[in-house]
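Handout for the seminar on molecular recognition.
Each group receives one record of this type.
Step one: identify the two inputs.
Step two: read the structure output and locate the region that could contact adenosine monophosphate.
Step three: write two sentences on what you found, then compare them with the reference statements printed after the record.
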Amino acid sequence: MIKTVCIFCGSSPSVDSAFLDAAAETGKLLALSGIHVKYGCGAAGLMGAMAKGVLDNKGKITGIIPAFMVDMGWSNSNISTTLVTHDMRERKRLMISNVDAVIALPGGIGTLEELMEVITLKQLGRFNKPIIILNTQDFYNNLLVFLDDMVNKQFMREIHKKLWTVVDSPSEIISAILDNTGWNPDEIKYATNI
Ligand code: AMP
């Protein structure tokens, strides 16, 4: 059973509406399935669209945001449950603790950093939940090619491609989480001796 998921996604409001729509649809589908969403508490871009999708459908959402972003006025005032952290590190730690999956939607450098950190933690056996990449409009294709290249050039093993699952549309997210066979923490052994 999926109780809680963490969502990483972009904060830019200037992106194509297809990205905002897919974020809103993701929030809606999670809310309708009774899944609690944790996210970075932004109001703009995909963050705001996804949160609105949850709230419009009476879902449960928690925003986790560092104090400096609250001071910047970036915290989403529509979110009633917020956790204010000392810094970005504490925020990321809380965002991925006690969740049943992480979902990365398209985003900028902040989203990329969050996604790469959680994949790295999983490779090292510190996080063992499904990581779903929503590849709206093939947004992540170049990253996936780069990750393939890391495998081809033996910076990673082929087995490491099991660390994440790519889906094309929001409607595939929940089944991708449920179908996920999981990464065995024993597989930390593959982090070396490539
Ligand atoms: P990005 O993918 O670069 O747009 O960044 C998304 C992530 O960056 C979020 O999870 C936050 O960590 C942070 N972030 C950047 N800008 C904002 C903003 N205006 N409001 C809230 N969070 C933001």
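Reference statements: Strands lie at 4-8, 36-39, 61-66, 81-85, 101-104, 131-134, 165-167. Helices lie at 17-32, 45-56, 67-71, 88-96, 109-123, 141-152, 173-179.
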